[in-house]
Amino acid sequence: MKALAIASLLVAGQVAAASTQPVQEIRDSVTQFVGAALEPGGRYEVVVAQIDPRLQLPMCAQPLQAFAQSGEIKPGRNTVGVRCQADKGWTVYSVAMVKAFKQVAILNKSLRRNDVIRAEYLNFEIRDAGMMQAGYVTDASQVVDKQAVRNIPAGSVLNRQHYAEPTLVRRGERVNIQSGKFGMLITAMGTALNDGTEGQRISVKNLSSQRVIQAVVVGSGQVTVNF
């Protein structure tokens, strides 16, 4: 009789285990979801938080569905949900910490405002993207020949807020005005009334006619206007 009671307890335990969603499967769903959301070829470290092994959820009759609470997986702390959409559905949340390592541009010398950034001023180092402000530079072509908009100390991770297109025309300087129509090119001298970068429209005073016109900056000391 005693043996029968023990056997009944074992069977009951097996039935309960079979009807409960394994916690490890929930954690695996989080890990797989995060891995699939990361950009291929990158360098990452992913740590998924342990789920309380005492959690008792009904076994899901449908494949588990994982999702990012914020809508995307990004470097840093991510809250990831796992849901069961069967009749007795449920949702549980876990945390995934993601470190994404990127090769970024580091200044090897200090720059002053308006300095032009040269390739030899850059080193590239591997850094944790989650510890950097968005907009970091990953390719020299993004920043070489751009102009610093503030003083930047050596050792800084270059960011898009640090630079802008170089100023090719400065307020008060003489510029060459070019205008073309039907294949004819007419040139005149003028004075820039604004600073301007390539492609920017600025006001220019024609020194011959004394008229103020709108012209597009096309190069250093060069503007063009179409009549």
TrEMBL record:
Cleavable signal peptide: 1-17
CDD domains membership: SAF_CpaB_FlgA_like (cd11614)
Domain of life of the native organism: Bacteria
Keywords: Bacterial flagellum biogenesis, Cell projection, Cilium, Flagellum, Periplasm, Signal
GO cellular component, one term: periplasmic space
UniProt-listed Pfam families: ChapFlgA (PF13144), ChapFlgA_N (PF17656)
Location(s) in or outside the cell: Periplasm
Limits of the SAF domain: 102-164
GO biological process, one term: bacterial-type flagellum assembly
Similarity comment: family membership: Belongs to the FlgA family.
Function (record text): Involved in the assembly process of the P-ring formation. It may associate with FlgF on the rod constituting a structure essential for the P-ring assembly or may act as a modulator protein for the P-ring assembly.
Protein name from the UniProt record: Flagella basal body P-ring formation protein FlgA
